[in-house]
Amino acid sequence: MLKIAGFLVVIGSVLGGFLASGGHIGALWHPFEILIIGGAAFGAFMVANSGAVVKKTLAAGPAIMFGHKFSKAYYLDVLGLLYEVLNKSRREGMMSIEVDIEEPLESPIFSKYPAILKDKHMTEFICDYLRIMSTGNMAPHELEALFDVEISSLTEELLEPSHAATRVSDALPGFGIVAAVLGIVITMGILGDAEKSEIGEKVATALVGTFLGILAAYGFVGPFASAMEHEAHEEANTYEAIKMSLVASAQGLPPALAVEFGRKSLLPEHRPSFLELEESVKGR
């Protein structure tokens, strides 16, 4: 909701100031200018990115606007799941969690955490490393190095949609100028026969193209790209917390202390406290 409120503030401030200065909203409504700018920007976006990035970027819209999953409750779920799996493996041996990691959808432990199961990639990430740990043939520092390589490539993948949106934001003022130039070309074509009022209207229409391109870039697409980047960093940080917990467990630390390593690596904004994590784990 904060994102929606921010966009409304942008619209209200710009249009409110325009109206207060004596402008008329109708003077800003030029569908063909919007077609030129929006169509050209979207076409360039498709050319510059792979189909997968295009789909991810478009799919990120509703998630950014209406659903921010990274919260204290979500982090408690991640750490709680790790604690239960590590605790079971410590009490009953690593082979005892084989069924859990091979069939997480059927696992009594994983089924307690639907928010994690819903994220197929994160579920596979946790299960893959638990599977590696169950072999018992990899030293903790080797496991950590493998984590680092995968998280690095994963972070790049998570940031691709935000980078794509940023490039669109950078291009929008230029497409606004394109629309403005085309408007001036039309104006020049009627210059000899048109009246002053008609010429003024055509020039104003051309200037609206520049206005729309700049407003879209700095008021909407640019901030949206920044929000996507922040979301990607939070997701990468969650994987970092999983890494810290599992590496600590591989080094022989008890489950309660291992998940504390993970908790400490989380970003402070929604990081649960030590007592909150302890109460959550005991409650489950």
From TrEMBL:
Principal location: membrane
The family this protein is said to belong to: Belongs to the MotA family.
Domain MotA/TolQ/ExbB proton channel: 123-240
Membrane disposition: Multi-pass membrane protein
PROSITE patterns: MOTA
Record key words, sorted: Cell inner membrane, Cell membrane, Chemotaxis, Flagellar rotation, Hydrogen ion transport, Ion transport, Membrane, Transmembrane, Transmembrane helix, Transport
Cross-referenced PANTHER family: CHEMOTAXIS PROTEIN MOTA (PTHR30433), MOTILITY PROTEIN A (PTHR30433:SF4)
Protein's UniProt name: Uncharacterized protein
High-level lineage: unclassified sequences, metagenomes, ecological metagenomes
